[in-house]
Specification:
Low-confidence stretches of chain B: 218-222
CATH architecture of chain B: Orthogonal Bundle
Largest sheet of chain B: none
Mean pLDDT of chain A: 88
Chains: A mainly alpha (222), B mainly alpha (222), C alpha/beta (242)
Distance between the termini of chain A: 63 Å
Number of domains of chain A: 1
CATH topology of chain A: MetI-like fold
Number of domains of chain B: 1
Number of helices of chain B: 9
Largest sheet of chain A: none
CATH architecture of chain A: Orthogonal Bundle
Helix content of chain B: over 70%
CATH topology of chain B: MetI-like fold
CATH class of chain B: Mainly Alpha
Order of helices and strands of chain A: HHHHHHHHH
Distance between the termini of chain B: 52 Å
Structural class of chain A: mainly alpha
Shape of chain A: elongated
Radius of gyration of chain A: 21 Å
Low-confidence stretches of chain A: none
Oligomer: heterotrimer
Number of strands of chain A: 0
Number of strands of chain B: 0
Radius of gyration of chain B: 21 Å
Mean pLDDT of chain B: 89
Chain lengths: 222, 222, 242
């Protein structure tokens, strides 16, 4: 029996690979969009402007204070009632981008604020404009603090992407869920699901750890 | 959208929401206690001098951290029956949450212990203090102060993670929102109310975190 | 009191202590000096087995320190160790720092331990700071608490690993004063230090090490005015240039 299910599982492999691709697609798009938006928001959040800081802070709090599953449901169901028709895939990308952007915003803001204020003073004294200061002095140094947690955040987002299966996006988790209805060997099926996620996440985790060590060494030279 | 927001329905469903709110709190609390326990054990194993014990704990922690919670949840939900183990859904849910957060707690505790400068341990050794005496009087008191914030952070994550239990038909907060959607086609009211309840828990935990840090503030001063 | 017989130690492939032979008598004050990497810190860290040795015999107070079966707690209770980076416990007050070992290792009752602790802290000049935490103390004050911590165990030997190297210059003297008092009181001491003035005043002998070996052993005046070896001469000339 077990052997039979195993061969069935092997036959389902193409289906799993499709799911893998879907996970990569959803995560990848959201990561890119989320990083861009996150950087912009992070820079704004780290600026002196109190109003911006408050508004962005409230947005981040909302995202952090509610489960991602609830956020997906809200985006998937609520936008249609405001007149925007939404399919599962775009809704998923929007929700995941939103999630990514809010966390990345905090990471970026933290990195910018960690740059010693003396740097800003020196740059101002040299006559550099705020934009030039950001571009040439602040941001390059902030990247040292930002990079390791940023990659760590990417890992979290790939894992969070599994939740989009709840609105029907056919990612790795959904493929597993559909397959287990036919092949009732939960351990085998979701073992395979786990392995596929592991293949994506484990290298990223190691990259994040590596960056953390690398940045720490560079930091001490300063 | 707000003009058509049906407050009366929310009022009608409030008993259900309160019941589900209670369920979420209870499920989270039980899983939290279990997770801290698992975390302490796994951390002790990870720091053990015996390579095999350390490796087993390492495999457990890395597997959990490299795979999504939803996949782990489905793994137990669909996998345990095929082993002959028919558990009530809530037990499966609590099991998945406990094992998941347990791995993260193990890492948090480990980081707290390893952040203590080795010189203090040498000072303890030099005075003749035994391993357990060093743990009890020098290492653990400091580790506790340092880990309170990340531990509460993980507790917040755990409460949000509990929303996934709705996907295996457990009656908690997110499920309440789902019911309002399927019964009355009112996803907006349903999920926004759900979100509001989660935000209550979030702000309570955040407040507790700030309060407890004030009590331990001198440890931060080191 | 302390006896090194053909002691050898490796860190992996690196041979850090080479055929060390040294006797330290009770009541003696021995200063160990030498260039960085000479093994001087490693030498004293072997005495209370913070570092293990691979060959040879190290006997302290008639007990073989590196014997697998020996009760290290007993030996360590007789040895006070002062670190370069103080290593005080930040979550405890000065009094708690100095009494934890007497309470838990010597199992002395609390009232008595606190009495000893208070007296010792007064002796090192910190009577006002008994309830302070390390973060509230200067480097010199912290190091004096560290010395008091060692003394509260009533040890037979006090070991110092570069006790003033991490201190700002103006605080070095307050610590050396405490150490001078200790020496005059007859404590057996081994001190790794660069403070040559201290060595001249207080040490019975100076042990000069280089590259893991003991190069010269002599009374301080002899060593400082007339070093016998070339390496000794070179070392002295390089530190006196400051």
């Amino acid at each position: 029996m077990w052997g039979f299910y195993f061969t069935e599982l092997l036959h389902s492999l193409p289906f799993f690979l499709k799911g893998l691709w879907m996970t990569v697609a959803v995560s990848g798009l959201s990561l890119i969009a989320g990083t861009v938006i996150g950087f912009v928001c992070g820079i704004l959040r780290a600026s002196g402007n109190k109003i911006l800081r408050y508004i962005i802070g409230a947005w981040v709090d909302l995202i952090r204070g509610t489960p991602f599953l609830v956020q997906i449901f809200i985006i998937f169901f609520i936008l249609p009632s405001a007149g925007i028709e939404l399919e599962a895939f775009p809704a998923a990308v929007i929700a995941l981008t939103n999630l990514a952007a809010s966390f990345i915003c905090e990471i970026v803001a933290g990195g910018i604020l960690a740059v010693p204020s003396g740097q800003r003073e020196a740059a101002t004294a040299s006559g550099l404009s705020p934009y030039q200061q950001l571009r040439y002095i602040i941001l390059p140094q902030a990247m040292r603090t930002i990079l390791p947690p940023l990659v760590g955040q990417y890992v979290l987002l790939v894992k969070d992407s599994s939740v989009v299966s709840a609105i029907g996006v056919v990612d790795i988790t959904r493929v597993g869920w559909l397959t287990v209805q036919r092949i009732p060997e939960g351990i085998m099926v979701f073992g395979l699901v786990g392995i596929l996620y592991f293949v994506i996440c484990y290298p990223l985790i190691n990259l994040s750890n590596f960056l953390e060590r690398r940045m720490a060494v560079v930091g001490t030279r300063l | 959208m707000l003009e058509t927001f049906n407050f009366r329905v929310i009022w009608e469903y409030m008993p259900l929401y309160l019941q589900c709110f209670q369920a979420t709190l209870w499920l989270s609390a039980v899983s939290l206690l279990g997770a801290i326990l698992v975390g302490i054990i796994a951390c002790a194993m990870r720091l053990s001098q015996t390579k095999t014990i350390s490796r087993i704990a390492g495999i457990y922690i890395e597997s959990i951290r490299s795979t999504p919670l939803l996949a782990q949840l489905y793994f137990f939900y669909f996998g345990l029956p095929s082993l002959g183990l028919m558990l009530p859904e809530w037990v499966t849910g609590v099991l998945a949450l406990t094992l998941n957060s347990g791995a993260y707690y193990a890492e948090i505790i480990r980081a707290g212990i390893q952040a203590i400068p080795y010189g203090q341990i040498e000072a303890g050794i030099s005075s003749g203090l035994s391993y357990f005496q060093r743990m009890r009087y020098i290492i653990l008191p400091q580790a506790l102060g340092m880990t309170i914030r990340p531990m509460l952070g993980q507790a917040i994550v755990l409460v949000k993670d509990s929303s996934l239990l709705s996907l295996i038909s457990i009656a908690e907060l997110t499920r309440a929102g789902q019911l309002l959607t399927s019964d009355r086609f009112m996803p907006v009211e349903g999920f926004l109310t759900t979100a509001a309840f989660y935000l209550i828990i979030y702000y309570m935990l955040k407040g507790f975190s700030a309060w407890s840090e004030k009590r331990l503030i001198f440890r931060e001063a080191h | 009191m302390i006896s090194f017989k053909n002691v050898n130690k490796w860190f992996g492939d690196l041979h850090v202590l080479k055929d060390i032979n040294l006797e330290v008598a009770q009541g003696e004050v021995v200063v160990v000096c030498g260039p960085s990497g000479s093994g001087k810190s490693t030498l004293i860290r072997c005495i209370n087995r913070l570092e293990p040795i691979q060959k040879g015999e190290l006997v302290v107070d008639n007990m073989n320190v590196h014997d697998k079966k020996i009760n290290m707690t007993k030996i360590r209770a007789e040895i006070g160790f002062v670190f370069q980076s103080f290593n005080l416990y930040p979550h405890m007050t000065a009094l708690e720092n100095v009494t934890i070992a007497p309470l838990k290792v010597r199992k002395i009752p609390k009232k008595e331990a606190e009495k000893i602790g208070r007296e010792t802290l007064i002796r090192v000049g910190l009577g006002e700071r008994i309830k302070s935490h390390p973060a509230q103390l200067s480097g010199g004050q912290q190091q004096r608490v560290a010395i008091a911590r060692g003394l509260c165990m009533r040890p037979k030997i006090m070991l110092f690993d570069e006790p003033t190297s991490a201190l700002d210059p103006e605080m070095i003297n307050e610590v050396l004063d405490v150490m001078r008092d200790l020496a005059k009181g007859g404590m057996t001491m081994m001190v790794v230090t660069h403070e040559m003035g201290f060595a001249r005043e207080v040490a019975n002998r100076v042990v000069f090490m280089d590259d893991g070996k003991i190069i010269e052993v002599a009374p301080p005046n002899d060593f400082f005015t007339n070093p016998q070896t070339d390496r000794g001469k070179f070392f002295l000339s390089s530190i006196l240039k400051h």
